[in-house]
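Inverse folding, one chain.
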């Protein structure tokens, strides 16, 4: 099941929708009660821009287990793309409540506060993240997104470069997720997007 799940994620990131759906279908056949797989099926329509379908799939996973942190996290992604920023913050705060203070989730919350114009709150969260984690930072690419939203392009690019050093697992995600679109022309990310996506990066 996990092999089909991970293949489905890879295909979803590449927007190969039909193949991704087939992979997730196989994963669910092998492990129909796995909440992570059920939640991640939403990422196929998410990357395809079908946000209503993505939201419906996450809500279906939450109907199975309302305290599942990963589902609330993905729901926060969806709400952000729908520009429902306050609802996105609420979803991510719920993810923190059920799953703990994951640094990437906290950085996403900081970004959303910046979207709402609350730069002071965003900077407070970022300052706490910068001092409370080892270096290279495990959420470097997410911090880069916050700093770019705060208007600090050079700092953002520096955090992306640290993300490479940290082997930040969110970097391939950042290359395709439209939430990161403002970062795609930064020097540290544009080359990686080209290597991962090829002509689709244009």
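Residues assigned per position:
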């Amino acid at each position: 099941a996990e092999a089909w799940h991970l293949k489905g994620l890879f295909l979803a990131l590449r927007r190969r929708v039909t193949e991704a759906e087939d992979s997730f279908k196989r994963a669910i056949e092998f492990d129909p009660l796995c909440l992570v797989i059920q939640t991640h099926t939403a990422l196929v329509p998410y990357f395809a821009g079908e946000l209503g379908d993505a939201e419906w799939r996450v809500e279906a996973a939450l109907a199975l287990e309302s305290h599942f942190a990963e589902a609330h996290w993905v729901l926060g992604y969806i709400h952000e793309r729908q520009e429902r920023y306050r609802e996105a913050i609420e979803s991510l705060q719920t993810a923190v409540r059920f799953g703990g203070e994951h640094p990437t989730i906290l950085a996403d919350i900081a970004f959303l506060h910046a979207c709402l114009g609350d730069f002071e709150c965003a900077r407070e969260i970022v300052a706490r993240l910068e001092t409370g984690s080892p270096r290279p930072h495990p959420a470097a690419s997410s911090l880069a997104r916050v700093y770019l939203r705060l208007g600090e392009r050079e700092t953002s690019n520096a955090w992306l470069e640290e993300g490479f050093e940290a082997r930040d697992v969110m970097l391939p995600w950042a290359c395709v997720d439209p939430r990161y679109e403002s970062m795609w022309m930064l020097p540290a990310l544009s080359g990686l997007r080209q290597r991962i996506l090829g002509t689709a990066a244009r």
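The first helix runs from residue 2 to 13. The chain has a mean pLDDT of 92.
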